[in-house]
Amino acid sequence: MAEQSTSSNINITDAVLNQSPVIKDAENVTINYMQPPSTSSSDEDEWNSMRKLMKLCISYLEIEGKLRIQGVSAKEKIPVVHPIIHEITYYDKDTVPVDERYNPKGPNELFKNKIKREVCFQDLLDQKGKFISIVASAGSGKTVLSLRLAKAFSLLKRLCIHLKLMDANYEEPLTLRQLLLDNMFPGHSEEFYTACFSWMQKNAEKIVLILDGLDQAQYSLEKISPKINYNACVPVKDLVFNLCRKHFFPNSLLIITSRPHAVLYLPEPARPQVTYALSDLSLKDTKELFLTFADEDLWRKINTTSSQILSMCRNPLMLQMIISSNIDPSEDIGDASTPTRLFATVMKNLTQSGHIHNTEGLDELVKRLRVLAFDATKEGKVVLTAKQLRSACVDPATIHDIVVQLHTHGLSVNSCLFEGNTKFFFCHQTFQEHLTASYVVYGMPLEQFQDFVETSLFQDHWTVVRRFVCGLLFDLESKAVSGDLQMKKEILKKHLIQQLAIISEKYMKTHQPYGLDDEALRHKLFDLYACVGEGKDSSIATKAAEHFPTTIQLPHPMNSNLVPGFCFVMKHVTKQLDVLSLSFCNLDANSFHEIASVIKEMKPGQIGKMDINGNYLQPSNIDDVIGLLRVVRDRLRMWECFIDDDGRKREANQGDAREITFDYKMLVMWSCFYGDGRIWRVANLDERNQLQSALNNIQTKLKVLVELGITLRSQK
Q1: CA distance between the termini of the chain
Q2: Within its chain, how far is the Cα of 158 from the centroid?
Q3: Distance (Å, whole) CA 567 – CA 570
Q4: Torsion angle, CA of 597/601/602/605, rounded to 10 degrees?
């Protein structure tokens, strides 16, 4: 968009603004920085102009849509996929961390306790006359969603103007008409702009205004601006604030997209009436978008060798990075099969890529970003100021709008490391965490490293960073490691094994089979297993296996990122286990297959009792269940562990309400009506016959509980 003003606006100088009254009560004062009123237009002129404007809006959306996918379309058609959308309670107490404070659980946890309901794209289209906001972290698809909304509204014959606030950082004062029409669609006559603006004032209920990227604006809306009229010539922030207040076009639909913090700071009179939070793509949409850029073979490869990476693919930005890194991983990195290896490959690709504004090369810049990332993570920040960047010897102009050409696949990604103009953010929190870990490993002095490991690294605040540190230091077996790196590796190994022993012992003391245990300890233990898995060091896994609890319950739910580490440790477990419970862990078909593949290689009868009920298994997983029969000695409980053949849970119906007695009551009702009122299913007749046949082929006293009151046993 051209940043230009009409000649009438150029004559409005700061002297005009200086003539305005002193504002004591900005709520109630209307300021008239009036330009001469335009000549009135007829209804016919207005309608003809509006039809032309609608066509211009659609043309703009078509151009913007193409820019969003530049260089990435290996196929003719880009699939229409949407992130999962939730309506949230945004302005209640403790709603979000100040300035999006660093959260080691990740951005998708930000609104976990604030969700009112899940909504669909159509729900957003049905909104009328409100001010709504759409908030999400970087790379989640805010701009793409806003462009699709704009196009859909246009098809519904509503005038939809989509304005990127990053492109509207005008320094000179201007009018609302100039902001929305003259500068958005330059080169037309005064009569055209006058007719369109007149129609808009008369037909506000037919207007949709989408202001994309409030966090990209160079101004702040934290202070209340005075009320102004339609012809006032003022700074952009006053125009935007009055739009939020619904002083302009009160019956229109106004949509603002932003990172969460910028909307959170809006003063109460200018806050949105409804807030939607974008989460990740669904697995189905993830695969559809993945196959736009790559082929089915790569999807199968990642799914088989490193399924935890797929959960990261649900962020569209990360999906592109992951595809590039797996298509042609750096020679000194090898297979990008763990998050640590993946990000090492991504960073390697970035330093070899084409970019703008940076003449010294990204390699040198990354070294400085490591220090910046560590300091920010230590202080609990993800939003940084230009002053903080300069203090780390990083020129804000150098990193603004970095355009990375990922050299192997033609994927072009804007702002790979940072986004923003006045406030800066790593485009994905995991970049900050990986850079933080890289500083700890490669930049932190040895003496400081030892103190950091002893006092800080095993605190919850450093959970994800700790995994990357373990991955970077332990996954070095094939490389020549000497000096400080070798000493750091030994220090970390010693303290990790100590932590595994301490947490395992505490867990065993508090855990009671089928009772409540210390959930925090359980999560801590599995986070440590994830560290072991990142490093792929068998000697550490063997030590972890020595301390493996004989009775253990997986976390509820079991994050797919924790599965590989758990499996890596389980491969080294040689002791007898009394109980292994996977109940209500929400394991999908892939995660269960990964776990079952390890268990079936264990010794016959090595596990006493095992529970797998309350998971999302598919019919193909029956072979995995059969593989467990030889290893489990006494009892396998598996009622209601499947979902329907099409991969969806089916709705609960009246027939699912059954009479349940004694201690099963609460547990079974939980499984029947878990979450949104949907249920799992028990093994069907064909699956039971397969289980019975498998039981008959082995010598076992195992009881398989497939449904309440129905137990399968070997008929030998």
Answers
A1: 78
A2: 31
A3: 5
A4: 90
- Distance CA(309)–CA(437), nearest Å, equals 19
Name residues of the chain where pLDDT drops below 70.
Answer: 1-41, 64-78, 93-100, 106-110, 328-334, 352-361, 398, 400-417, 420-422, 476-482, 511-517, 644-679
**Distance (Å) of CA 509 to CA 156, 501, 503, 552, 631:** 63, 12, 10, 12, 26
For 671-680, what is each residue's pLDDT tens digit?
333 333 346 7
The string of pLDDT tens digits covering residues 275-320 is 999 988 888 888 888 888 888 998 988 888 787 888 888 888 888 8
Residue with the two structure tokens 């398989």: 704
pLDDT computed for residue 98 by the predictor: 54
Is residue 409 within 8 Å of 323, Cβ to Cβ?
yes
Q: Residue 642 has which token pair?
A: 């499947």
Residue 430, CB half-sphere, CA atoms under 13 Å: how many?
22
Task: Retrieve residue 144's tokens.
Answer: 């793409």
Cβ(205)–Cβ(128) below 8 Å: yes
Q: Which residues pair with 275 in a beta bridge?
A: 88, 133
Strand 423-426 with 418-419, pairing: antiparallel
pLDDT at 107: 58
CA distance 497 to 449: 17
Distance CA 635, CA 268 (A): 58
Number of separate domains in the chain: 3
Q: Is residue 449 part of a domain?
A: no
Question: What does the pLDDT read at residue 5?
Answer: 35
Is the same domain home to 411 and 389?
yes
Residue 668 has a pLDDT of: 37
Say yes or no: 255 and 367 in one domain: no
Do 181 and 216 lie in one domain? The reply is: yes
Name the residue among 331, 327, 389, 397 with its Cα closest to residue 360.
397
Distances (CA, A) of 522 to 5, 529, 550, 670: 61, 11, 13, 21
List b or e across 165-190, with b for residues whose CB sees 16 or more CB atoms inside 10 angstroms.
bbebbbeebbbbbbbbbbbbbeeeee
Token code pair at residue 266: 């809006």
Tokens 């965490």 belong to residue: 433
Q: How far apart are CA 463 and CA 451, in angstroms?
A: 17
Residue 297: exposure state from Cβ atoms within 10 A (0-12, 13-18, ≥19): exposed
Both structure tokens of 374: 């560590």
pTM of the predicted model as reported, rounded to 2 decimal places: 0.80
pLDDT for 383: 81
Phi and psi, residue 573, nearest 5°:
-80, 125
Cα–Cα distance measured from residue 221 to residue 192, given in angstroms and rounded to the nearest whole number: 31
Question: What's residue 401's pLDDT?
Answer: 52
State residue 319's pLDDT score: 86
Q: Which domain holds residue 152?
A: 7-281
Query: For residues 714 and 692, what is the distance between their CA atoms, to the nearest angstrom?
Result: 7
Both tokens of residue 435? 């850079």
Q: Are residues 368 and 413 in the same domain?
A: yes
Does residue 452 lie in a domain region? no
Say which residues have a Cβ less than 8 Å from residue 310's Cβ, sequence separation at least 6: 283, 286, 302, 303, 560, 590
Looking at the fold, whether 574 and 659 belong to one and the same domain comes out as yes
CATH code (residue 100): 3.40.50.300
Residue 202 · residue 39 · CB < 8 Å: no
307 shares a domain with 231: no
